[in-house]
Amino acid sequence: MEGPTPVSAFLHAASMITAGVYFFFVFTFFDFSNWFVILSIFTTFFFSLNAFNFFDLKRIIASSTGSQLGYIYFFLSLNLLYCGILLFTFHAIFKSFLFFIAGSRTLR
Q: Residue 65: which residues within 8 A CB-CB, separation 6 or more?
């Protein structure tokens, strides 16, 4: 994510969101065990606490993407697909707004 903010927003929209849609359609057929729930909780806390180490706004936003991915894993592992898709949709919309806000803050 080292690049201009519009490039970061495009990379997020083009690759991560597309991979997430693919993730939902492919992995809904698997039965997840308890270790996947524990892994998703670890992922959420790791990326949430990792954001405290960064001072750049774009890196903080990118780290929050990892924590949101942990939440989506969590919902998916508990077979709460509608909650996961709703979080996925809100994440896609508001993350693009956050990247453009970060771009307006770094240009000043």
A: 12, 16, 47, 91, 95
Amino acid identity at 8: S
**Residue 50: CB partners within 8 Å, gap ≥ 6?**
63, 66
Q: What is the pLDDT along the chain (108 residues), one digit of tens a residue?
A: 455 566 666 666 666 666 766 776 676 666 667 788 888 899 899 988 988 888 877 778 778 888 888 888 888 888 887 888 888 888 878 877 777 777 776 555
DSSP string covering 38-49, please?
A: HHHHHHHHHHHH
Q: CA-CA distance, 37 to 24, in Å (whole number)?
A: 16
Give buried/exposed letters for 52-89 (b at 16+ CB in 10 A, else e): eeeeebbbbbbbbbebbbbbbbbbbbeeeeeebbebbe
What is the DSSP code (8-state) at residue 13? Answer: I
